Amino acid sequence: MDAGDDTIAGAAEPEVAAAAAPESPEPMGVFQDSRVGRAVISGLMALLVTVLVGWNIPASGVRDELRSDLRPLVNTLGMNQGWEVFSPNPSTTSINVVADVTFANGDRERFEFPGGEPVLGALRQYRWRKWERRIRLEKHRRLWRPTTDWIAREMAQPGNPVVTVILVRDWSRTPAPGSGDDRTWQEVEFFTAEYEAEP
Amino acid sequence: MAESLEPDTTIADEAAPEAGSARAGESRGPGVARRVARAWSRFWFTPMESSVFTLWRLAIGVTSLAWLLSIVWDLNSFFGSEGLRPVTTYADNRIGLFQWFTSDRVLWATWWASVAMAVLVIAGRLVRIAAPLLFYGIMSIELDNLSVLNAGDDLIRLWPLYLSMFVLLTPAALVSLGPGGRDGTWPLAPRWILRLAQVQMTVIYPASVIAKLKGNTWWEGDASLYALGLVDFQRFPVPQFLRENQIIGAAMTWSTLLIEAALPLLLWNRRTRRVGIVLGVGLHLGFDYTMRLGFFAWGMTIGYIAFLRPSEAARILSWFSALGRFVPGRSGLREASVAPEAA
């Protein structure tokens, strides 16, 4: 098996497109043409392939051990990766996190995280959706206070600071296919932060 | 067609001894170790025309630039000192810039520098400096708030990493070519980084399929309907019957699994390579149309470039080169192929 081209019988016969073949082959670089250079690159490739395969084998005790060994290198190079998308099952929960904000003068306003139109806006909005999906969970409660702090700063008006921010989870379960059930949305307040109105 | 003139070597050909390598004693046939070493050398070091690498580099530069521009409105919110994560805890061995420099000025300087580096990578100028700095800038930004990233962002970081490794070990003249090549020709370049990109793509799909097979909705054929039912993911309009029809849903679910499982085999077989590219890119475009997945399709498409033949990449680049001729004041992007770094 080969990829991307037809592997040829050796470096002496480089792969070329006949329509634009170079007049004469030239060295690809002193380093890569040398025995030492090829040994170094071979070592690097062997290491990186080991990392890629070891990091991405199916979840198991073996993978946990491998990842433990590989993590220092992976963390340093930024090679962390995970491809278990929409697995083992896609989520059945649609989420929209909003915040009910109360100002010092008693006014109330609903805050929504930035959205985005589907063409270019979607290339920005997916990060906000990711954040919303994360903070809705109890296990990420450490993110709740920084989120309300940020909302309080964003919403503050001159002379009229925010005194309360309530995070609200607006969610619905996708009806089972074929059930004929209607989608229903529910709102649940899951965190309240209070702020002192500065004189 | 030029393509038909390309070397067309069969598996049997690969087993044949290399031309010009016959030495005394080799008539008995190479030993296993020697054959493995030769196969290794062929796999990683057989040179190929630099058009594929050039297209791959340009795609990484453009995608990185688009990614950086997409994040500019939210840079302070996600990563700033008064943002959503004013204090970030870094795992051991991380080397993100903002774990040491927390000022918003450094954040913005990094963003601007990364934008400049992406432009240089696209232009083929100072690539050996620009690519590593681009990688480090993107990685530093991403590491400062992992909570807003998805798998596409992983690719946005990984491709510049691989690009950096290559350009640091390869002559500048080979990594700085424009879409016109060198006066219309493509000098030979090493292929090992494209091989690594191919390996990266190859590990993605088995990991994805095996994880999915642990879920009952994938077996039952409902997974795609559940995915399409996620309101906060929805992007462009999808007809109601596609969202609700169980037969269509099962077809979409199982065909997704089947294609993802088959892609590594299709891509590594020269007879089915092109089918694999079309199916794979089509699959990701379909995901991208229906769901808000950020730069996932962009990142995956960059990976598919590594599976192109030089003639195919050259053809795609010639389209861009032709487009450049319509830019006022320019006679084509070919001029950019002779970068100062190369000269």
What is the CA-CA span between the terminal residues of chain A? 74 Å
Radius of gyration of chain A equals 27 Å
The total domain count of chain B is 2
Major beta sheet, strand line-up of chain B: 1-2
Question: Would you tell me the structural class of the helices and strands of chain B?
Answer: mainly alpha
Most residues in contact: chain pair: A-B, 98 and 126 residues
Q: H/E element string of chain B?
A: HHEHHHHHHEHHHHHHHH
Order of helices and strands of chain A: HHHEEHHEE
Largest sheet of chain B: 2 strands, antiparallel
Secondary structure tally: strands of chain B: 2
User: Which bin fits the share of residues in helices of chain B?
Assistant: 55-70%
Oligomeric description of these chains:
heterodimer
Low-pLDDT windows of residues of chain B: 1-27, 329-343
Structural class by secondary-structure content of chain A:
alpha+beta
- The average pLDDT score of chain B comes to 88
Short summary:
The complex is a heterodimer of chains A (199) and B (343). Chain A has helices at 30-33, 35-56, 61-77, 122-135, 144-155, and strands at residues 93-103, 108-112, 162-173, 185-194. Chain A has 199 residues and is an alpha+beta fold.
Explain this structure to me?
The complex is a heterodimer of chains A (199) and B (343). With 199 residues, chain A is α+β, with helices and mostly antiparallel strands. Chain A has two domains: 18-77, no CATH class; 93-194, no CATH class. Chain A has five helices and four strands; from the N terminus they run H-H-H-E-E-H-H-E-E. Chain A has helices spanning 30-33, 35-56, 61-77, 122-135, 144-155; strands at residues 93-103, 108-112, 162-173, 185-194. A four-stranded antiparallel beta sheet of chain A has the order 2-1-3-4, covered by helices on one side. In chain A, a hairpin with a 4-residue loop joins strand 1 (93-103) and strand 2 (108-112). In chain A, helix 2 (35-56) crosses helix 3 (61-77). Chain B has 343 residues and is mostly helical. Chain B folds into two domains: 50-190, no CATH class; 198-305, no CATH class. Helix content of chain B is 60%, strand content 1%. Chain B has helices at 11-15, 32-45, 51-71, 75-79, 104-123, 127-143, 151-168, 172-175, 192-212, 216-220, 223-228, 240-244, 246-267, 273-290, 296-305, 310-324, and strands spanning 48-49, 188-189. A two-stranded antiparallel sheet of chain B has the order 1-2. The longest helix of chain B has 22 residues, at 246-267. Chain B is globular, with a radius of gyration of 23 Å. Chains A and B meet through helix 2, helix 3, strand 1, helix 4 and helix 5 of A and helix 1, helix 2, strand 1, helix 3 and helix 6 of B.
